[in-house]
Design goal:
The protein has ten helices and twelve strands. By secondary structure, the protein is of the alpha/beta class. The longest helix is centred in the last third of the chain and has 22 residues, at 298-319.
């Protein structure tokens, strides 16, 4: 099998590339990324996947997914494309959402068009933010979207445009994943877990928006990778799958966890406009395929602590 991975130098895409290259030694891989600020932990770099690329079994192309000619070249002879490429920063979308629309919606739709022309499967990586927030209970895959920020809106728009390609004359073999907040290595410095660790390493207070009561479900990126792998091979065409560990923590609780383990202080700052109160998604559908996350309960605390320590160590080593 030959698999194309877009956004392969970003956080989740690079973790997925490492996971798949190691697990499937008989597969070939085409890695695609335009190397933006979110590529690599420090940005604008292929550092996350450089060791994988050999020019034979694993190739890297610096291309923009909205360029259809390049996508026709890159996806040629592939059996599947997994689309991680996205502008994912909510704050940046509030300032200027054009890049989010171009990448998250238009770019994703271009990939869908090329995949339908080549008659290959497309696994599209979406987000739980398309549902909006929920005070009680959890969102199922069949529930109505209610995105409340421009990032989530662009991801919801992509799903609508891709869903239209499932029908004649396109007949796209499409499966969609919607995951909770991911954490792990290779993550951009703009994300909260990385920010927490960098602040501790540099003796700065950890900024927490508002009162820090907004609740997120935290999903270890490698658990997400195993879920996407399963969906790629066994997901039902035309279906969407929620992915989460159900490890709920408020932003305040996560910051307090880090401080309890590594020291540091917390500083409450003005809340971000449109900061959703709580995300929670039902995972019955993917669990029915046999998937279970590793990082739950005590394992979750151990893995989260390990990841925070990883970033603290990296930042301290840079400054020494």
């Amino acid at each position: 099998m030959k698999i194309a991975i877009t956004g392969a130098c970003g956080f989740i895409g690079s973790n997925f590339a490492h996971y798949m290259v190691k697990k499937y030694p008989d597969y070939d891989f085409v890695l695609i990324d335009k190397l933006t600020y979110a590529s690599g932990e420090n940005g604008f770099s292929d550092e996350n996947i450089r060791e994988l690329v050999d020019g034979r079994r694993v190739k890297l192309f610096k291309h923009d997914i909205s360029d259809k000619d390049d996508m026709y070249d890159d996806l040629y002879m592939c059996h599947t494309v997994v689309n991680f490429a996205a502008e994912s920063h909510v704050g940046r979308a509030m300032v200027n959402g054009k890049r989010h629309i171009n990448s998250n919606d238009i770019g994703a739709t271009v990939i869908g068009e090329v995949a339908s022309d080549y008659h290959i499967r497309m696994v599209h990586i979406s987000t739980d933010e398309v549902y909006g927030d929920i005070v009680d209970g959890s969102f199922r895959e069949d529930m109505q979207f209610n995105p409340k920020n421009r990032y989530a809106g662009s991801k919801a728009a992509a799903e609508m445009n891709l869903n239209a390609l499932k029908y004649p004359p396109h007949n796209l073999d499409l499966v969609i994943t919607r995951s909770a907040n991911n954490f792990g290595i290779y993550q951009s410095q703009e994300k909260f877990v990385h920010i927490i660790a960098e602040c501790i390493a540099k003796n700065r207070p950890i900024p927490v928006h508002g009162e820090g009561k907004e609740i997120r479900e935290w999903l270890w990126v490698m658990d997400n990778c195993s879920a996407i792998d399963l969906i790629l091979h066994k997901g039902i065409s035309g279906e969407s799958y929620n992915i989460s560990s159900h490890a709920e923590l408020s932003n305040k609780e996560l910051a307090e966890l880090a401080v309890s383990k590594f020291g540091g202080t917390i500083q409450y700052v003005e809340n971000r406009p449109g900061n959703d109160r709580r995300y929670s998604i039902d995972t019955s559908k993917i669990e029915a395929l046999g998937w279970k996350p590793y990082a739950v309960g005590d394992n979750f605390l151990a893995v989260m602590t390990e990841i925070i320590d990883y970033y603290i160590t990296k930042h301290r080593n840079k400054s020494s």
